[in-house]
Design goal:
Shape: globular
Helix content: over 70%
Strand content: under 5%
Order of helices and strands: HHHHHHHHHHHH
Length: 301
Amino acid sequence: MADGVGAGSGKESGARGNALGALFMVIAMTLFAVEDSLFKSVTPALPPGVATLIFGLTGTTLYVLMTLRAGEPVLHPAILRPSLMIRTFFEIVGRLFFALSLAYTPLSVTSSILQAAPLVVTAGAALLLNETVGPRRWIAMAIGFVGVLMILRPTPDAFRPDALLAVAGMIGFAMRDLYTRASPPAVSTNQLGVLGFAVIVTAGLLMLPFDPAPPRLPDAGELWRLLLTGVVGVTAYAALTRAMRSGEVSVVAPFRYSRLLVALLFAFLFFGERPDLWTLAGGALIVTSGLYTLIRSARTG
């Protein structure tokens, strides 16, 4: 339901590597938008906690099989280290509130607010990890946060409380990404995938007591879409990892914002959403400031 951090070595060099990385990033972001749309299509009838639980079990099963196939232990002992435990906590927060946002908030609003995550990561890196962030990036981040306020519209007449679910989910994911930087390098991508989807299972269990309707088993159509959601999510994460391992971060990372374009298209075609000018303008500010921050961070890295 939200992209993780792909990292690794063995980057391909030159223009070919950058082109390949950009292509895989667009593929990954498109698949994440498909995943979000599939999940949202189920939740009007199926309680969000049940949907999240089945989605998490599907992804966990797939990643366990991939980890075993790679000859790796399913759970690395390093998951008990403080940095990974903090990462796990924030991922639970992100998954829980993002699932609720997909269920109750327009997809266009949820996807627009999610794009502010890189801004929060950059601010968090400066405040918590003592990374150097120059004044131009602080100004860009401030502009991005103005975009979030434009979407929220915190006035008595226009404020929509359900958008706070997306804000909470975005902050959870941003802090997860921040602590992924500090996670032990010995933990493989597959092992992080097992941990990430196990967290989704935990989030689903936490949501069950608060679901508005009693828990029930999904019908055949709902189950098929949730299983497909898990397959798409795992594939998207693999594409994201390949993207970040193929090209330079400054070239590849900005293509993550293609997710918003796909999400807006899906929101229009499948959910009948018509974002107003405030939402579109706020999303544009977030994307513009995020692009600048990502490129500037890579160049000063």
